[in-house]
Amino acid sequence: MDADTRGEVLKRLAYIEGHLAGVRRMIEQDSYCVDVLKQTYAVRRAIEKAESMLLSGHLHHCVVGGIESGDDGVLYELVELYELANK
Amino acid sequence: MDADTRGEVLKRLAYIEGHLAGVRRMIEQDSYCVDVLKQTYAVRRAIEKAESMLLSGHLHHCVVGGIESGDDGVLYELVELYELANK
Amino acid sequence: MDADTRGEVLKRLAYIEGHLAGVRRMIEQDSYCVDVLKQTYAVRRAIEKAESMLLSGHLHHCVVGGIESGDDGVLYELVELYELANK
Amino acid sequence: MDADTRGEVLKRLAYIEGHLAGVRRMIEQDSYCVDVLKQTYAVRRAIEKAESMLLSGHLHHCVVGGIESGDDGVLYELVELYELANK
Predict the structure, then answer these.
(1) pTM, whole model, 2 decimals?
(2) In terms of pLDDT, which residue wins out, D11 or C1?
(3) How far is the CA of B19 from the CAs of A13, A41, B9, B24, B51, in angstroms?
(4) Rounded to whole angstroms, how far apart are CA atoms A2 and A8?
(5) Percent of residues in chain B assigned helix, strand, coil, to nearest 5
(6) N or C: chain A end with fewer CB closer than 10 Å?
(7) Using CA atoms, how far apart are residues B74 and B64, in angstroms rounded to an integer?
(8) D27: CB partners within 8 A, 6+ apart
(9) Residue A32: which of B20, B65, B68 has the closest Cα?
């Protein structure tokens, strides 16, 4: 992962932690459950967006490097990641 | 939502924030992307578990109350929640 | 489920079977894997749309009926459905 | 995709069409909505399993070939596929 992507992912994750802290405050203030759930859905989508950036970095570096050096273990890992992503 | 469930959900969300902070440290320490992604998947699953608890509280309180008072708006909201949950 | 909704869901499911048969033809004709995958994703989204209609019918009939007769088993089932929906 | 994988995917898709036809019969016979939904979930999981096989074939053939010939368009496609998979 290049330094720019890494910095961007770290910034997003820190933001998501703040979002979750906000969700906790909503619950403490007895917000309507449906509004709370919509926020936790938004948090999960934000995590998925960070995952896309991580995956992209992984593909362009480790996977390309693996294939170029004849290691197809990276491909089995990708299928596993795909299957795990939404289990 | 009863006080016990609320306390349990708050505890889980605080734990998840700590988990995300741990993921940021993994990235700062240049951990393997696949290991990082497996952790963000685990974070999302933990959020989904908290959502189940929130939904259960919502059903047993707001939805039952809504139906008993003849308000079927809560049912349309549930379909919307179901559709939003994984978009 | 009322007769209109049932008719609509049945029509959609028959259409989806045709869509899947089309995906099989794509594979037999050696279409590009990425194009095939985009079609199977579309099939899954179409099934989810039919599920929304089924869930809506279920909520407005069985769940309302269950709550009115004091049976909260329908609520536990809803949480289970929500958890199963994307496992 | 090699011939064996292709044959296996085609067999699975044909089986899934039969499964969907069975779901239609359940609805025509007025089965309990929750039971119907559990079957449509099973259908979607079966489609996801076929997708894993398609993805694996794609990775081992097109992606490896693309990288070896210096075409990184296949990597951008993979990120797009990952993002589309559960939208």
Answers:
(1) 0.93
(2) D11
(3) 11, 18, 15, 9, 17
(4) 10
(5) 85, 0, 15
(6) C
(7) 9
(8) C1, C6, C9, C10, C13, D36
(9) B65
Task: Single out the residue of D55, D50, D46 nearest to residue D23, CA to CA.
Answer: D46
Res. D1 pLDDT band, cuts 50 70 90? confident
Q: What is the pLDDT of residue B87?
A: 73
Is the CA virtual torsion B5, B7, B12, B13 positive or negative?
positive
Could C55 and D43 be called an inter-chain contact, meaning their C-beta atoms sit closer than 8 Å? no
pLDDT at A35: 97
Query: Which residues of C lie inside 8 Å of B (Cβ-Cβ)?
Result: 48, 52, 55-56, 59-60, 63-64, 67-68, 72, 75-76, 78-79, 82-83, 85-86
For residue A54, the chain B residues in CB contact (below 8 A) are 33, 36-37, 40
Taking only the tens place, the pLDDT of each residue in C24-69 is 999 999 999 999 999 999 999 999 999 999 999 999 999 999 999 9
DSSP track, D61-76: IIIHHHHHTT-THHHH
Identity of the residue numbered B49: K
User: What distance in Å separates the CA atoms of residue B1 and residue D68, rounded to the nearest whole number?
Assistant: 57
pLDDT, tens digit, for every residue of B55-65?
999 999 999 99
Q: How many CB pairs under 8 A join A and B?
A: 97
ipTM comes to 0.95
From chain B, pick out residues whose CB is under 8 angstroms from the CB of C82. Answer: 52, 55, 82, 85
Query: Which partners does chain C have (≥3 C-beta pairs < 8 Å)?
Result: B, D
Identity of the residue in C52, C79, C86 whose CB atom sits nearest the CB atom of B56: C79
A50's tokens: 């960070």
Helix, strand, coil share of chain C (percent; to 5): 85, 0, 15
